[in-house]
Amino acid sequence: MAAAKILVVDDEPAIRNLIHRFLAKQDYQMESAEDGKSALAVFEQFNPDLVILDVNLPDANGYDLCKEMQSRTGVFVLMLTGRTDEADKIRGFNTGADDYITKPFSLGELEVRLGAILKRQRPVTVAEQQCLTFNKLSIDPIRREVTLAGDIVPLTALEFDLLHFLAGHPGRVWRRAELIQKVWDYEYVGDQRVVDVHIGQIRKKIEIDTTQPTLIQTVRGVGYKFEPPVDAELEMAQ
């Protein structure tokens, strides 16, 4: 398999060059850009698998750039920023970001997160290909589509992975750390409330009443579980 192509977009030369050199040594194909205009130009020519994207650029908003890039190719995006406010993280995830890392960060953590995101490109097993249907809710891992009453639910890649994992183990309670390990696919050392952010976004899209969620339930003091509707039976089909 060819080495993944990664584009680093950051207006700080020290950070941009450090990431570029470090990941190049890990055998990734690398390109860099210092602003939004040059980032889009390189993006078109390079066609990266993943973009490490700074939120604050001199000529562009990172959130808008994320949305623009993903509308073209569905590229993976790791947002990079000095902001730690939860509202900023939610905004990043809403624009399609696959993960979010705040400065300062270790290069080791960055590498592990990149690897976890890129693993989503791997072929899924037969078991993972099974479509899950609970009454009006259908989760199709082949098309990576979720429909509710026939309408497509617009989920980000990470939201889909999280919902598919929970729904694939109905009734099972998962701790936040377990979900991070299973879905994010690495030992996450940051704030585990990142799980809460994603659960909240999914609930807005599939729950009738987010104040009283019935599908993804909070188990106080433990974590989360997917609870099928009382009258629903899990249907699995190839």
TrEMBL record:
InterPro entries: CheY-like_superfamily, OmpR/PhoB-type_DNA-bd, Sig_transdc_resp-reg_receiver, WalR-like, WH-like_DNA-bd_sf. Residues 129-228 bind DNA. Signal peptide: none annotated. One of its GO terms (molecular function) is transcription cis-regulatory region binding. It comes from the Bacteria. One of its GO terms (biological process) is regulation of DNA-templated transcription. Residues 5-118 form the Response regulatory domain. Residues 129-228 form the OmpR/PhoB-type domain. PROSITE patterns: OMPR_PHOB (PS51755), RESPONSE_REGULATORY (PS50110). The modification 4-aspartylphosphate is found at residue 54. Keywords: DNA-binding, Phosphoprotein, Transcription, Transcription regulation, Two-component regulatory system. SUPFAM superfamilies: CheY-like (SSF52172). GO terms for cellular component: cytosol; protein-DNA complex. PANTHER family: REGULATOR OF RPOS, TWO-COMPONENT RESPONSE REGULATOR ORR33. This is DNA-binding response regulator. It comes from Leptolyngbya foveolarum.
